[in-house]
Amino acid sequence: MNKITSLFKIKYPIIQAGMIWVSGHKLASAVSNAGGLGIIGAGSMYPEVLREHIQKCKKETSKPFAVNVPMLYPNVEEIMKIIVEEGVKIVFTSAGNPKTWTSYLKENGITVVHVVSSSVFALKAQDAGVDAVVVEGFEAGGHNGRDETTTLTLVPMVKEKIKIPLIAAGGIGTGRGMLAVMVLGADGVQVGSRFAASIESSAHAHFKKTIIEVKEGDTQLTLKELAPVRLIKNKFYQDVQELYEKCPSKEELTALLGRARAKRGMFEGDLVEGELEIGQIAGLIHEIKSAEDIIVEMLTEYELAKKEVTEFNF
What we know:
alpha/beta; three-stranded antiparallel beta sheet; 14 helices; globular; 314 residues
């Protein structure tokens, strides 16, 4: 057992990211049943919808699972109350100050992990009393750090500063990637894009098909003035770029983004006008597989890569 498997009481240090419109009870329970840690993404759920997903997840797995809560969520107090009422044991917080909810969650016996994109925020999370941090490089899909620090450099820089367990995220979807970040100091990995293209993912079939067609250079980090997000370069992305040529105000960018753009793209399958969030690792995803098969494939490749490394001669 390592620090992460011990902390979460799971078999493998592979955590499935709590992605909006993608990470429902089916995906979370499948990952947990396969020995990883499944996460329900609360960011795209009304409070009672989240309660339903938690209850279904408890029926579908006896293994540990978590809920991810972006703290900018408008109903965050109700969300946290439901998490406590339903007996969720692990919460991943993001997009906000970890001091706000960490004490409340820990007082209710919940293990708390906070997502960060810099050493500064990692230290703030540690000071707030979280049990571990997810350190996310800018290769990641979805919302992201403004500084564009890569996972390869961010993981060892954060490792140098903190004492709590470190989970690496951003650009990890293979066993070789997993080994690389663990050599750099990570205790486990959080995987998003690879699980977005799984059978159990709640993403629309059109979006899943698009993920496996993505090639190197097909995604870009944008909308930094609002909340940095990595998008596939579809028509909506091109509309954003055209607006940038006119030096838009924050209000003009907000107006273009509108409401429910991510739902439209990832959940409803509008590949033209929807927001399609995915990581750079999508260029290495070629097939839609079950969550269990993804974990088995990653572990097999991890062991093979580890063996190959030990055989290197210099």
